[in-house]
Amino acid sequence: MPFTAYSTAHHVLELPDHHPFPRYKYGGVAEVLRGEVQVRPAPALPWEALALAHEPNYLARLRSQGLSRQESLRVGLPWSESLLTRALHAAGGTLMASRDALERGLGMNLAGGTHHAYPDRAEGYSLFNDVAVALANLRAEGFGGKALVVDLDAHQGNGTAVFFQNDSYVFTLSLHGERNYPLRKEKSDLDVGLPDGTADQAYLEALEQALSTGFACKPDLVFFNAGVDVLAGDRFGRLSLSLEGLAERDRMVFSRVRQAGIPLVIVMGGGYNRDPKVTVMAHAQTYRLALQAWSKSRV
């Protein structure tokens, strides 16, 4: 098994009963993929690594005080040490996956995609913006190329847009529900807002055009936020893709990346289907398709 996937399944997030955050999926996806890819525990990211991207005052406040009640409401998760610890591991998994991508062509984190975190605050299930942190650290380690962020979560990557809004070496692409969270959108390099209920054909047509625009920047590295909350039946997604439509979405991304001959980092993103088995199956499908695509390219 030449590829590695990093997982936060070894860490338990403490939540009240019936909380909508799908903590089940992280262990579920890791278990389903075990035997197909080397699954390793994601390491905790050191605070110095976070400081390359996030504001010092925000990090200092998190370490000393945690989140206030108001901030916790904005995040949608109650403050606890387990929340902080898990966020550190999830971000660590994305950095490790990014290093793998530069070395092997493909890196995978079975967590991450916390694209609502801003440089100075947490929002929407996101304490740290794992993609922004990973890229900041890659640059500190010598990476000097262009990056493309392909964010196909059902919700706009508002925090990611702000992180890179003045960065000419990063192109941010977000394909999302126009009327979905966040109500106030930030400006990505390319935002494609879709109406509620968008299904396979219209989604894939919009994606094809968006990818053509994104790859025109000639990136040297791609980050793919592979949220599966675009599926029909998702509690928060408001779009209506089928599992086959989701598979075609992923194939389109992987085909573009392979044609360009550049490394890819996959982060999990959102997925809140009313049927937990569908959420796990959909996420696992994305990683399996990537493994198939990159295994063929190595033959």
Automatic annotation (TrEMBL):
Superkingdom, taxonomy of origin: Bacteria
Domain Histone deacetylase intervals: 38-276
Pfam families: Hist_deacetyl (PF00850)
GO molecular function: histone deacetylase activity; hydrolase activity
Gene Ontology terms describing biological process: epigenetic regulation of gene expression
Keywords annotated in UniProt: Hydrolase
PANTHER family: HISTONE DEACETYLASE 12, HISTONE DEACETYLASE HDAC1-RELATED
Protein name in the entry: Histone deacetylase
